[in-house]
Structure formats: C-alpha cells, structure tokens
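Quick illustration, no need to memorize.
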Amino acid sequence: MKFDDLDKRMRSFERSIDQRIPDGLFLVARLDGRNFTRLTKETRPDLAHPFDIRFNEAMVETVKRLMKCGFEAVYGYTESDEISLLFAYGASTFERKVRKYNSILAGEASAHFTKVFGETGVFDCRVVPLPDLDSVVDYFRWRKEDSHRNSLNAYVYWTMRDTGKTAREADRMLLSISNDRKREILSEYGIDYEGTPAWQRWGVGVYNEKVERKGFNPVTGKEETGTCNVLKVDRELPLGDDYAALIERLVRPSYDRERLRVERAAMESAEAKPPGDLVDEGRRELAALHRMTDVFLDTGRKISERLAWNVVKTLNRTMKGEVDETLSYRGLNFFDMISIKHRTLPYSQFFFGFQEELERVIDEQIGSLSETDSLVLMYRDPLLLETGGKEEALRRLHAEVLKAFGEILDAHYGTVRMRRFLERYPWLER
C-alpha cells in the first residue's frame, strides 16, 4: 500500500470520533485536579487546612497561564482544585475541536501547576457548550455557589478533626446537619465564617483590565501614556446581580463583534448573488433589504428588552425601602412592595411617583450602550442614518425601553406573585 493511501486511511480512524462545537454556542472549559486530596494531605502535609495561600496562588498562576496560551479566554475562575475558563464568543481556536481543547488545556494546566507548586499535579478537562448568555451567567453562579458550599464543609470538617474526630466521623457529621447548624458549630469554636477571606468562600476570578502606562514612542521620540490589558486577580468577587454584570461585561464585546460580523457576511452574501434581468435583480435587492431590516429590527427589540430588564434590576436595588419602610422585610423586593400597596392597578400606571428616578435610570442604561448596539439602532431606520439623527434614534429607544419596562412589570410581577406573598404574610392584607 502506498504511503499516501495508508496515511489517508489511518487519519480517517483518528478523525472518526472527532467532535466540533457548532458556531453560535458559548464555550466554557472546566478543569479538575486529579487526586489532589492525596496531594494536599499526604504529599504536602505541611499545607495549612482548610486553606493554604500557597496552594491557592499556584492555582491562580495556572489560571493566568491558561488565559495567555492562545485560546481567547476572557475570564478564568478557580476554587478548590478546579478551574473554569470562559472563551470569547465566536472563538475558533483549533476549529473548535473538542479533543484539542481537552488535551492542550489539561496539558498546559498540569505542566504549569507542577512547575509553580513544586509537586506533580495532573488535571483533566471537559468542554461545556452553552446556548446563550444567561446560561453562561448561570454556569459561573453555579460554580461560585459550589465554592461557598465546599468552603463551609471544609471549615467544619477540619474543625472537627482538630477536636479529635476521625475522618469518617467528620464526614458523617457533615451529611447529617444543615448549613445553619454548621455555622453555629464554627461559631461555638470561635470561628466567624462570614469573616473569613472572601477568596476562601467565593473563589478567585482572573480577567483582563485596561490600565494606563507610560512608555517611550520611538516615532515621536517622546514619552507617551497609553492603555494596555493586564490580568487582574480578583480575590473579592462581587455577588448576585453584580457578579452577573461582570460576566456579561467580559463576554459582551466578543459577542457584539461576532454578531456584527455575521450580519455583514449575510449582507455581502446577498449582494454577491448573480444578477438576472433587471426585474429579478430588483426583487432580490428588495428581499435582501427586507431581511436585513428584519434582522436590525429584531436586534433593536432585544436591545430594548435587555435595557428594560437592567432598569428593573437597578430600581429594585436602589429604590427598596423608598415605598414604605414597614414593608422592607426579607422576601419582598421593591416591586413586591408596590404590588401590596397598589393591588388594584397594573404597575405601569402607578409609577408616576417614581417617574424622575425611572427616567434617570433609563437614560443611564442608554448611555452605557456599546458602539455596536448604537450602530444597530441607527441601521434600523435608513432615514435616520442618512440625516445623522442620532438624537432622534435615542429618543425612540427611550420610549421603547419605557414601554418594555411596563410590559415586564405587568407580566412578571403581577397578581399571581402578589397573592403568593399575601398567603405567606397574611398580616399584610388590609
């Protein structure tokens, strides 16, 4: 058999189980340390328990290495002996082949951790495709909550070991008590769990941050100030909606770029079709224009809805307690309180009391639009694009966000939710 034929045949076996992550999906990779319990307890008995800053720093350095090894990672997160990486939307490294991601990332992590820690550490890797941005946020919230749970268990476990309990006894105890009881036990031994370092409870994030630096410009012969990206190690990650906003901020630029690239490719594809007679050519151009108009209109609607949801979250965070101090108790947010005070009207009709704050928050959200989103809004109306009517486009967007805001409140904070709270707190019924 000729070599070329043999080569082709053997490579077909190699590629027989190749998987490639389809375009249009977000990519996350999770790496786990193999037998790290033995590594930290037996190989390195000098490590402090339940957490040792030397081990954590080795994990952080490994994350930084993975962020710079050519895979377009925009966020790295580590807790315990695991690492999660979020890649730029549309990342095409190694044609998105699963075996490449799994093998190279695991190899890079294992080699670098071993180098900085001084003991052999081996990682496995799995690629996690996610359908949308909400799922990406949920994924990292999940790992963050897992970190909190593991941290609490670790503190209780090692506290029990220090008091003379065996490993089996400590494990059994963890399975039989609630989280509140675990905190009580730690408190009984003088440990304020909520006062422990944030990185021990919530993990560590690594991401690029723009900083200003001075440097010599050889062209002008002068010292100039410019901006560059540096990796930031965040040991006090934000919580709740603020953490979700951080994840979205890190992946949004790549998402906007890829979306714009796809839209431009669709336009170029429509223009590249071979022309027929003049009538058919005109029909094709009109159809292509209608398709692109639909794309921009749909994207514009999504932008309005996203801004409206941001307005809802902002008001819920800043206005709680402004309605009625007697209703500011655990379990009710700003909109729940309003529904109790105004049970007979839809939300959109009694927001007049907060109109000024509402308008301010909407303008604030519009002001935070990316350049890509602003262009999409202009492209929705060719007349505005030709006349440069940016102010008119923003005025229309403001009205759309206000309308979407009212629809969200009526749909998601309606009477069903209000009745549920009244059943839970019957004393509120007046």
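Residues 58 and 147 are 17 Å apart (CA to CA).
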